[in-house]
């Protein structure tokens, strides 16, 4: 192991302090987000915090362990460097040097580890483009599993080499580029992630996460290449990030709670989505989500909540605010009849309940005549939908419209287009009222 020089050590400490100072504040998100209030819908402050000591007095390079960056897989060197860092009693920084390109087959960096670790990616890591290299793991390329107090940063690039998979597109048997599974106290900062085979960056069952200053890109026609995917994760901030791919810029699915999406540039892609939820009659829960500050341009959807018929659970306490839409199809959409399959979906009575959703300060242009669509469930109408200062125009001189079925919507301030009170919702409400009073 090589020790830091004094100057390098000081610089590294400052960088690590800046990145990890958020941990304590992120864990407090749960105390700050409640049911949406369109008059006080502000995201909690996650700046501040305090780090007593710089934990990384040791730095190692993957080159020390035999990495060649010559076009052949360097898995063995990366695995040895990780084993050295993970077993150290002191904090360790693992460096991927700049101006080099390292090729990796699927690889897992497993915890738990004895101390904190920083992965400093200054160069480029690219995925093997040989499909046979993925026979042992068809779902993942790079995985960090069950690691606590991890920092991944450096300004480098991860290249997924996804084109060979896109050209033979199939929804299964494609890898996610970078997956964090059951990580706690995690910072991912200042990275570029490109051309993943499937999802680019996935947080699965993590807790206390900061992801910021990221650039995630893939061609608009690349299939199923979600930018950032959040599942089963609590207390997460995604901020100051640009995403343009062939699918959702950000997708938030079941088990996620206390989620902040702040200052995002989205497009091309499918917008920012909660869901899909409830597929296969499953139970799903998402709660306490804030999207605060986004520019969404030329996407197929803007702000979307999508649930399957037959599911159960809830999507609740959600705020979308301070969003600019530029020529977006379906700028605001709640779809409780989502059906992403070739054959028609069976109509079912049960549904994931959508309630307490606020839209505030949302402006821009719709590429479709219907700018706001609430297609809610007959059996479980959308409840507590609030819209304040929403102005979406159609293209040219054409006025945009709103389509609203089975929804309880309240408007505040200037809202255009606005829902007319849904007859379907009133029928449901009266049925519930008189039905409940029969006894």
Plain-language structure description:
About 10% of the residues lie in helices and about 45% in strands. The radius of gyration is 23 Å and the shape is elongated. It is built from 6 helices and 28 strands. The chain has a single domain (about 1-45, about 95-435), classed as Single-stranded right-handed beta-helix, Pectin lyase-like (Pectate Lyase C-like), CATH 2.160.20. About 50% of the residues are buried. It has helices at about 5-20, 25, 30, 75-85, 165, 425-435, and strands at about 1-5, 55-60, 90-95, 100-105, 105-110, 115-120, 125, 140-145, 150-155, 155-160, 175-180, 185-195, 200-205, 205-215, 230, 235-245, 250, 255-265, 270-275, 285-295, 305-310, 310-330, 330-340, 355-365, 370-375, 380-395, 400-405, 405-415. Mean pLDDT is about 85; it is low at about 1-55 and about 420-439. It is mainly β. The chain has a 17-stranded mixed β-sheet that branches. Strands 5-8-11-13-15-17-19-21-23-25-27 form an 11-stranded parallel β-sheet.
């Amino acid at each position: 192991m090589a020790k830091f020089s004094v100057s390098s050590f000081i610089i590294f400490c400052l960088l690590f302090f800046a990145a990890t100072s958020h941990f304590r504040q992120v864990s407090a998100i749960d105390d700050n987000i409640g049911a949406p209030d369109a008059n006080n819908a502000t995201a909690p402050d996650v700046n501040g915090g305090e780090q007593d000591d710089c934990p990384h007095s040791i730095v190692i390079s993957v080159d020390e362990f035999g990495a060649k960056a010559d076009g052949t897989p360097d898995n063995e060197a990366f695995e040895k460097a990780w084993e050295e860092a993970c077993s150290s009693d002191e904090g360790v920084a693992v460096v991927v040097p700049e101006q080099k390109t390292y090729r990796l087959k699927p690889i897992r960096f497993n915890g738990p580890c004895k101390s904190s670790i920083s992965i400093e990616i200054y160069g480029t890591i690219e995925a093997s483009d040989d499909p046979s290299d993925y026979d042992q793991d068809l779902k993942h390329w790079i995985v960090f599993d069950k690691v606590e107090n991890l920092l991944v940063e450096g300004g480098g690039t991860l290249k997924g080499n996804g084109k060979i998979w896109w050209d033979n597109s199939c929804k299964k048997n494609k890898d996610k580029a970078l997956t964090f599974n059951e990580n706690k106290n995690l910072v991912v900062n200042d990275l570029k992630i490109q051309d993943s085979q499937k999802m680019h960056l996935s947080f699965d069952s993590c807790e206390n996460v900061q992801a910021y200053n990221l650039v995630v890109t893939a061609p608009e026609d690349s299939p199923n290449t979600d930018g950032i995917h959040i599942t089963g994760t609590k207390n997460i901030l995604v901020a100051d990030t640009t995403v343009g791919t062939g699918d959702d810029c950000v997708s938030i699915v079941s088990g996620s709670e206390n989620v902040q999406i702040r200052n995002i540039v989205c497009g091309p892609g499918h917008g920012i989505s909660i869901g899909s939820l409830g597929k296969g009659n499953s139970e799903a829960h998402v709660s306490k989500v804030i999207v605060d500050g986004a520019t969404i341009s030329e996407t197929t959807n803007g702000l979307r909540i999508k649930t399957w018929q037959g599911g159960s659970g809830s999507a609740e306490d959600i705020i979308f605010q301070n969003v600019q839409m530029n020529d977006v199809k379906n700028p605001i959409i709640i779809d409780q009849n989502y059906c992403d399959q070739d054959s028609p979906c069976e109509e079912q009575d049960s549904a994931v309940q959508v309630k307490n959703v606020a839209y505030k300060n949302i402006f821009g242009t719709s590429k479709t005549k219907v700018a706001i669509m609430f297609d809610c469930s007959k059996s479980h109408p959308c409840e507590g939908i609030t819209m304040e200062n929403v102005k979406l125009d159609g293209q040219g001189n054409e006025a945009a419209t709103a389509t609203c079925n089975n929804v309880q919507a309240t408007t505040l301030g200037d809202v255009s287009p606005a829902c007319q009170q849904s007859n379907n919702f009133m029928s449901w409400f009266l049925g519930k009222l008189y039905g409940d009073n029969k006894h």
